Amino acid sequence: xxxxxxxxxxxxxxxxxxxxxxxxxxxxxxxxxxxxxxxxxxxxxxxxxxxxxxxxxxxxxxxxxxxxxxxxxxxxxxxxxxxxxxxxxxxxxxxxxxxxxxxxxxxxxxxxxxxxxxxxxxxxxxxxxxxxxxxxxxxxxxxxxxxxxxxxxxxxxxxxxxxxxxxxxxxxxxxxxxxxxxxx
Length: 184
Fold this sequence. Notes:
Mean pLDDT: 90
Largest sheet: 8 strands, antiparallel
CATH architecture: Roll
């Protein structure tokens, strides 16, 4: 599912306004044989959303910030895709205010930066993204990513199963958050 999210539009609507961006980088976390997956040791109060239905958000805290995932498998199968980076489209000024950052490259190029720019926090954990309000993913609207332009590499920042090539990104995109090392 991770490569299928590339080129889709992530949208967040709040009282402050609407922000959106093209998803350009994502990492998969698998229910089976993936010790880096938050659900590898079973269901807890903190990771319960990963066991929920597909199309729901799994938001978790890390170092006083947040990371946002999309649950991808049927209920009870804890797999999710971490959205690592987007290319800002709408609401750039709001993203800049939230991040206290003017540089486009620094707005949403990394999972915690993305959550800050989009106003995503733990309150959206378990959110049904299929409703089309507050937080959702829209079709690509003509910005489809051509399969040949998708890069694949090991995930970033994990110490377990770091060799698995489960990070997908738009190869030539300047706003990708991590290195463009390719595998296989």
